[in-house]
Amino acid sequence: MTFEELKRLANELNPYGKHLGIKITEISDNCVIGLLAVTENLLNPNGTLHGGAYYSLADTAAGVLSRTSGRKNVTLEGKLNFIKSVGEGVTIKAIAKKIHQGKTTGVYLVDIEDENCQILATGIYTMYYIE
Questions:
Q1: What residues make up the domain containing 26?
Q2: Long-range contacts made by residues 20-27, C-beta under 8 angstroms, separation at least 24?
Q3: pLDDT by residue (tens digit) across 98-112?
Q4: What is the CATH number of the domain that holds 63?
Q5: pTM given for the model
């Protein structure tokens, strides 16, 4: 699958990602960048971005990077540390980087930044290859 086909898969054929508004903008062998505009329906009762939205963006970016291996995958484990919150009107960016891509699993580091490149969350995801 080419990077353009993978981008189409992530952006157009992923109902959950489309529902949230996740947009994968860049794909390479070692890095994936995804964006999420913070809208009112993604806020928690405190008026800040819900942790599940952060997690979903990071998980999606790591999953797309894992797919650059040419294999389908599922998340085996994901851990995200929340550092700073944001409110409505901000666009956040997930930057996934490859740490390891083996025979059955891949490990990916994901940082989530705001528009000023401040780290909002950081995590590590392990993907299991199902093909």
A1: 3-129
A2: 20/53, 20/56, 20/57, 22/56, 22/57, 22/60, 24/60, 24/61, 24/64, 27/3, 27/64, 27/65, 27/68
A3: 999 999 999 999 999
A4: 3.10.129.10
A5: 0.96
